[in-house]
TrEMBL record:
<dbReference type="GO" id="GO:0005524">
    <property type="term" value="F:ATP binding"/>
</dbReference>
<feature type="domain" description="ABC transporter">
    <location>
        <begin position="5"/>
        <end position="241"/>
    </location>
</feature>
<dbReference type="InterPro" id="IPR027417">
    <property type="entry name" value="P-loop_NTPase"/>
</dbReference>
<keyword id="KW-0813">Transport</keyword>
<dbReference type="InterPro" id="IPR017871">
    <property type="entry name" value="ABC_transporter-like_CS"/>
</dbReference>
<dbReference type="InterPro" id="IPR003439">
    <property type="entry name" value="ABC_transporter-like_ATP-bd"/>
</dbReference>
<keyword id="KW-0067">ATP-binding</keyword>
<protein>
    <submittedName>
        <fullName>ABC transporter ATP-binding protein</fullName>
    </submittedName>
</protein>
<keyword id="KW-0547">Nucleotide-binding</keyword>
<dbReference type="GO" id="GO:0016887">
    <property type="term" value="F:ATP hydrolysis activity"/>
</dbReference>
<dbReference type="InterPro" id="IPR003593">
    <property type="entry name" value="AAA+_ATPase"/>
</dbReference>
<dbReference type="Pfam" id="PF00005">
    <property type="entry name" value="ABC_tran"/>
</dbReference>
Length: 345
């Protein structure tokens, strides 16, 4: 099973520019979490901080008992082996076919025989739905396939923590749903701790077990998906609804006067874009029938029961409903193939 990642009081600046401060959250072991936020709020910086590529000046990041901001470079090297990372651009080698791209970490970091390498590569290619495309060059395939290849490469060293930066960027809504399903299936298959960084609303509403949001240099909230999805926080509602009304502005944020003026326009009938009704929760995606149980579901249910009394009422109600309807748990007798359809988002 994946390991927990525990972040406390984390602050990161570049020179005099503070990116975010006092970020505290725990990625529960083996669960899927998502970090949302408008463009430029420092999501990628956060992701790079977790693997030690960037160095926050305050706080701690504890992984498997080691605070990576204080450990030796040798310890950091060991901790990094726990990670598989899909960067925003996929970062494939353009001159290598997909097989060699995916095999690269194995050839670089292990002494595995070529036949073992082939076995592992083909297994991961299958998991991400790329079987048959081994001989293609990155330039010959679609953006969606490049993401999948990057994902396969992130998986070959059997990571316990998988970081995925904007798996949906450049993809159409249907391809985004396919990659969402793949991420859930990967979690079911290898039970790793997964953090997805994204600003995609559909993905946020259907994939993660836990959701956090960055805004105005702070972590607005982090917790079980129901907390954010039922939140009354203006910035969260605006983000999930994708509307122009709210604290998120064209560049990043708005002042009170602008917000009031815009609200007045909407009251007078102006359409602010986005979807009007973001109330309610759509069921979370499940692993494709035939995949192993997603063990995170049962573990999360236990965990959430324990913190239930600390959550807002609206979240508690939503969680209770999900337990009752079987969305939150695997009941193999009642839902042998988990076939209740996902409502359209
Ligand atoms: N290596 C760096 N040096 C200086 N500034 C950086 C660096 N990386 C990111 N930034 C700045 O940090 C801010 C957040 O960037 P980023 O994490 O890429 O946002 P997001 O991923 O949420 O869109 C931006 O203003 C960006 O210019
Ligand atoms: Mg980014």
């Amino acid at each position: 099973m994946g390991v927990e990642v525990s972040v406390e009081g984390l602050t990161k600046s570049f020179g005099s520019q503070k990116i975010w401060q006092d970020v505290t959250l725990t990625l529960p072991a083996g669960e899927v979490s998502a970090l949302l936020g408008p463009s430029g709020t420092g999501k990628s910086v956060f992701l790079k901080s977790l693997i030690g590529l960037l160095r926050p000046e305050q706080g701690s990041i504890v992984i498997d008992g080691t605070n990576i901001l204080e450990c030796s470079s040798k310890e950091l090297y060991e901790i990094r082996k726990l990670f598989g990372v899909l960067f925003q651009d996929g970062a494939l080698f353009g001159s290598m076919n997909l097989f060699d791209n995916v095999a690269f970490p194995l050839r670089e970091h292990t002494k595995k025989s070529e036949s073992d390498v082939r076995k592992i590569v083909m297994e991961k290619m299958e998991l991400v739905g790329l079987l048959g495309a081994e001989d293609k060059l990155p330039g010959e395939i679609s953006g969606g396939m490049r993401k999948r290849a990057g994902l396969a490469r992130a998986l070959v060293l059997d990571p316990q923590i998988i970081l995925v930066d904007e798996p949906d960027s450049g993809l159409d809504p249907v391809r985004t749903t396919y990659i969402s399903q793949t991420l859930i299936d990967i979690n079911a298959e290898i039970d790793a701790t997964i953090l997805i960084v994204s600003h995609n609303i559909n993905l946020a509403r259907t994939v993660p077990d836990n959701i956090g949001m960055l805004f105005r240099r702070k972590l607005v909230m982090f917790g079980p998906r129901e907390v954010l999805l039922t939140s009354d926080e203006p910035v969260v509602k605006q983000f999930l609804g994708g509307t122009m009304i709210g604290p998120i502005g064209m560049s990043e944020e708005k002042d009170e006067a602008t917000m009031a003026a815009e609200q007045a326009m909407v009251d007078a009938g102006h359409h602010a874009g986005g979807v009007d009704d973001v109330e309610g929760i759509v069921p979370q995606m499940k692993a494709t029938p035939g995949m192993p149980f997603r063990q995170a579901v049962a573990r999360r249910q236990e965990r959430v029961r324990e913190i239930m009394h600390t959550l807002p009422d609206s979240a508690q109600i939503a969680i209770q409903e999900s337990f009752e309807e079987g969305f939150g748990t695997y009941d193999t007798e009642e839902f042998p193939l988990y076939e209740e359809p996902l409502e359209s988002v």
